[in-house]
């Protein structure tokens, strides 16, 4: 979840306020392991766990357990790595990683090489969480790297290289001023390789977010692949979208 340092006072809503406990234990049943995540609520919203990240972790867990019934199967079917032994693991970038739980879970459940990214002020906590789960990730053949990445700064992406198959993100469509920088980064990543896709978990909060999707559809085919049921007190649940370069055949 990539936000600028002056966004710390944003009110996300009472129903989404995470626990104030510093450590969060997330059980991943398909690998019979627990991922431990440090939250630092006082440092801002990028240091907290949010519902869309949990949705992606659950989908990754369920995919490893039973790919035949997973909405992720069509995306992952083109990759050789399936979370077991493979000479060619999936290479994944995660944008706006926040606490890093999605990237860490992807590395463990898919046996993938994952690069988690966020703004410079978030990197220290990202590294802490990656290190805390390194043993679990390595046990299942995955690797996680940490890197700073500012949306809209193509030089940042170029430094990371173009060895990427899939891009992931959760809860990144939030501030309107970040829509264009995010789309610039996505256009560079996706249009450079026609077989790449972007999976994004999103919880709609305001009507203005439709501006992002309207702009995105100029460049990408955007499909809904999964919808969570709303939590109690909410009208909508988390939606997972797949973005692909226009004219790509699935």
Automatic annotation (TrEMBL):
Signal peptide: none annotated. InterPro entries: Methyltransf_16, SAM-dependent_MTases_sf. It holds the Pfam family Methyltransf_16. Residues 1-22 are annotated as: Disordered. Residues 1-20 have a biased composition (Acidic residues). This is Methyltransferase family protein. The lineage of its organism: Eukaryota, Viridiplantae, Streptophyta, Embryophyta, Tracheophyta.
């Amino acid at each position: 979840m990539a936000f600028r340092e002056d966004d710390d006072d944003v009110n996300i809503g009472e129903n989404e306020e995470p626990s104030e406990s510093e450590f969060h234990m997330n059980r991943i049943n398909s690998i019979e392991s627990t991922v431990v995540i440090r939250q630092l609520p006082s440092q801002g919203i990028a240091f907290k766990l949010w519902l869309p990240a949990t949705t992606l972790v659950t989908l990754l867990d369920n995919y490893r357990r039973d790919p035949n019934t997973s909405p992720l199967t069509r995306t992952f079917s083109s990759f050789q790595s399936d979370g077991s032994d493979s000479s060619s693991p999936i290479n994944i970038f995660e944008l706006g990683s926040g606490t890093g739980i999605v990237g860490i879970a992807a590395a463990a459940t898919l046996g993938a090489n994952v690069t988690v990214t966020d703004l410079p002020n978030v990197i220290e906590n990202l590294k802490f969480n990656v290190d805390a789960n390194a043993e679990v990730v390595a046990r299942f053949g995955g690797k996680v790297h940490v890197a700073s990445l500012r949306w809209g700064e193509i030089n940042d992406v170029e430094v990371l290289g173009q060895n990427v198959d899939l891009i992931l993100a959760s809860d990144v469509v939030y501030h309107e001023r970040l829509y264009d920088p995010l789309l610039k980064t996505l256009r560079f990543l996706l249009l450079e390789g026609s077989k790449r896709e972007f999976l994004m978990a999103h919880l709609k909060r305001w009507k203005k977010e439709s501006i992002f999707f309207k702009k995105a559809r100029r460049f990408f085919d955007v499909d809904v692949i999964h919808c969570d049921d709303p939590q109690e007190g909410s009208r909508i649940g988390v939606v997972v979208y797949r973005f692909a370069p226009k004219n790509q055949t699935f």
